[in-house]
Each structure stands twice: as C-alpha cells, then as structure tokens.
Design goal:
The structure is a single chain. With 618 residues, the chain is of the alpha/beta class. Helix content is 39%, strand content 14%. The chain has a 5-stranded mixed sheet. Strands 2-1-3-4 form a 4-stranded mixed sheet, covered by helices on one side. A hairpin with a 6-residue loop joins strand 5 and strand 6.
Amino acid sequence: MSKLNSFRELEHLRERLREQRKNITTTVIVCGGPGCQASRSQAVIDAVRDELSRQGLDQSVRLCATGCHGFCEQGPIIVIEPGNIFYCQVSPEDAFEIVYQTVMKGEIIERLLYEDPESGARVKTESEVPFYRAQDQQILYQNRLVNPCSIEDYIVAGGYSALIRVLNNGTTPENIINEIKSSGLRGRGGGGFPTGRKWGECREAPGDEKYVICNADEGDPGAYMDRGVLEGNPHLVLEGMMIGARAIGAQSGYIYVRNEYPLAVKHSRIAVEQARELGLLGDNILGSSFSFDVEIARGGGAFVCGESTALMASVEGKVGEPRAKDVHTVVDGLYHKPTTLNNVETWANVPSIILNGSSWFASKGTQGSKGTKILALTGRIKNTGLVEVAMGTPIREVVYDIGGGAVNGNMIKAVQIGGPSGGCLPANKFDLPVDFDVLSAAGSMVGSGGMVVMDEETCMVDVARYFLTFLQDESCGKCVPCRLGIDRMLEIITDITEGRGRPEQLDLLEELADTVSQTAMCGLGKTAPNPVLTTLHYFRPEYEAHINEKKCLAGVCKALITYRIDPDKCTGCGVCLRGCVHGAITGETKQAHVIDAQLCQKCGICRSECKFDAIQVV
C-alpha cells in the first residue's frame, strides 16, 4: 500500500478494504497467543488453512490468527462467526470436521465445546462460558478482531480513527488532555497515577524536545497482561502513543519491550514498519503538521528496569538503575528531556476514550478508579488466564465466578495481588473491590494486575520467603534500605521456615519492613516489604506456629514437617517404595510400609504417588 497523505485517503482505504471483504460469510478466529501456541495452535491454523483451500473456501471464509483470548488453559481456542461458536482444546486433526461440519453445513461439533464443570453441560457460544460471561472485556475483546501482523485488519476494525479525530484542526492538545483527565484514567502499571495529570505536567514542562515511552517491561512472576495486549493488538498501543505524543508535543517515542517476550518484540516491530510505510509514523502524518516516530528498545532483563527512571537509563544505554525523583520525569526524563511514560494497558485505553468520550470510560468503575482492569489470574484455581473486569469488581467475583474456585477442592486461603511487591489478602477480605485506593489501604495494590490464588496447602510464611528471594535477586542494590533491608528480612524469614525462629524476631521483622517501605529510593524498593507486612498482619498465627510449635500448618516448610505412613490406610501395594529414590521406605507386599525419617528427604514423591492417602505430613 502507498503512503497516505490525508485523513480522506485513510478513510477511503478503510472503505476499500471493507468492500473487499463483503463476500466473506464466515470468520474462523484462532487464538495464536503464547499459551495456545504451546498447545500447537500454529499447527491448527495451518491445518484449517489447508482445509479451507482444499474445499475452495478461500474467498468466502476468513481465517484470522489473533492474539490471546485470555482462557489460556483451554487452548487452542477457535471462535467461529457468525454464531460466536466456541471450540476449545482443538487439535490439527479436527480441521476437517470444523470446516466441513461447522463452516459448510452449520453443524455443531459437541466434543469440541466447552464443558461447564459445575453442570456438566456443553456450552455452545463463547459468551455463555462462565469464564467470559462474568467479565467486561474492552481491550482484550479487540484482540479477536485483528491479526496482530495486519494493519489492514486494524484499519477495517476502525483503527486510527481516534488519531484522525485528534489531528483535526478543531482539536487542540489541551482538548485531548482534558478528555483524558475527565475520563479518570489512571496508570495501569502499578502506581495508579492520573494519566491526564501526567500528560498535562509534561506538556507544560519547558523544552521543545519531548518523549513518550510505552513500558512493556513486565517483570512480575505470573503476570502477562501487557504481553497479551502488545502481542495481540500492537497498533492499538501505537495509536494510543501517537495521541499522547500529540497531546504533550513529542516527536519521538520508544516501546520498551521485555527481551524475554520475542513475540511482542516481533509484532511491535512489524506494526511500526507498517505504520511508517502508510505514513502514519514519520513527518507530517496524514498531511498534518504533526510528526512522530517510534523505536523499539529491548529490555535488559532486570525487574528493576520496570521502574521509570531505571527504564530510561536502560534506553540511554546505561545500567538500569533508578535515580532519585527530586525532579519528576515529566520534566527531567529520557536524555534529561520531559518524558511521559505509561504502560501498555494505559496506552491501549486511550483510543477508545477519544472515540467514545470520557463519560463512557468514567461510567465504569468506582469513584476513584475508572474503566476496566486486566488481571493475570493464576495459582490454585480452576480457570487461569487473562481476565478483564470493571474496576470495583469484588475480588470474590474474580476468584469464584470467573476463576471457578479452587482446583482441588481445598479451601481458598488468600490472593496475592499486584506482583511480588503486592500484598497477600485473606479470604475474609475478598469482598474488597479491585480499586487502587481500597487495595492500597488494605496493604496490597492493584499493581500491574497479577492475581495469584492460594489454597490451604499454601504456607504464607513460605510465600513471603519466595517473594523476598525474588526481590533480593532483582534489587539493583543502589540504595542501602533495599539492598540490606531485603537481605535481612529474608534472613529472618528463612530462620523461621527452617525452625530457628524466635518470638522477638516478629517485631523486628515488622519494624524492618516498615523502615524499608519508608526509606527505599524507588517505588519498587518501597513496596518490596508488602508481602512481609501483609502476611504478618493477616496470617500471624502461621508465623507463631513456625516459631513456637516448630510446625508448618500447611505442611510446606521441609524443616518443620515429617512424613509418616498411616498403617490403617496402607495396603502394602509398594508404589511408594518403588518411587522413593532415597531408599527411605521399607516394607513387605500387602503389609504396611514404614518411612525412615533419617533417610527421608521430604521430596513428596511418595505422597503424590499414593492412591490411598496413606502418607501423611505431621
């Protein structure tokens, strides 16, 4: 396609592309996100494409390989429109049936439908699947509409209409900023800072050279919200950045992508190249006075590079270390120029706000937290994946209505929200809404949106130890409170989990965590003690049991548990004996076996192999 030189040419291209697709009667949408790719979705795509060609349906049926749909554990996923027919766990061998029976004859393939675990009934449409039914997908839904590598798909779906609107002569940068302010959009990357206010401060900052940055350095364990959006709809993010650049007066931008996200890097680069080719990036975009271009910067692989000043140092080619924010980055940012940095999800919200109006966005959510939020729902729960809900949705609804509750029938004990710097909230706090201010007051945070569900077999002391270990590895070490404070907190909690804990250490641990939270230099250091503070506050009896009774109530901390075989339950089948690589189990066939505590390494293999629940943790 040739370069577009005016708004009219872009609209004519949109009309022409839509005209070319008028003959399409059916669309077969195949999820091509990483979760589905791990289940051979590319082989499914190839098989369906070959079958459509063999049946001569190339012109009337559109095959669209999209980004993530969210329900990763059910992949590969296919949605057929019209009809919203939802097939899951599809294999390449199913391609003939899907094309012949469903596409050509309109028949439903029962075995490929989702089975509701509660009722056992097969669900025909995607909108009926409980996982999707309880959501309010605004951003994630757009993944289904486009092939992420096709700018034509994005234009047909209405893409870059918001850009046209803000480039019209009647729309000033101040109008854009006021619209974002009125919407109530807050940063989705962690702190929840008001986006419109950030843009306004950057526009008012002195200097002609300014930057916008998309932070896609998503380093939280178990979090992949930004990845799912950038991989699935990179042009949406790019359009949001263009609008932000127009608002603050920037001519250059960067998408800082985590290097461990090769698909996001690839799709971002393709999107930038396609936009340049069409004249949507570069000088005098669409014949206007607005010039703007974007570069892709690959992350340095450090968790701390998700912090704004460390990220900017990394882009500049320096070590990714934070610096003190005596002067905010909207005034002194990248290359010491005024810079606006927002994460992927924040930028992705911008085009819809411009097209639908600030009141539309503000109609969702709570007084202080507007719009929707994407969450990565993981842990010991039936339905895992990417979830998008209106702000204000209770945690309970996310865990039970969308997540389906515990996967193994155990009682759910807690959720950890907001990544490794988030806090752990007990089940009696599940009525709290997903809200920046409410969760912060409870000791947690919305953060980037990670939500890890934990059941009664989870030791909360061990959870705090796990996250401190991660944060210790990822601390840049620049400031003393973070560098030494995390080390000391981890040392104390390690003592507790290994049976060396003393009662007076709990007060010391709490005091130390509070000191780090108040004195660390950057936001990551200040929030690092959250797992410790919340587990101490909400699950103190578990700490006390570790110290006073030398007992791990969840049976997780190896130093505090012993495996024994219940002679009344043991059948003498010998499975545990054969599975024990340490030779710690002895016994004759059809007689109760015995575990030698001196040889037992507490690996848990015997317990997982026993079908009679005879091996117990004491």
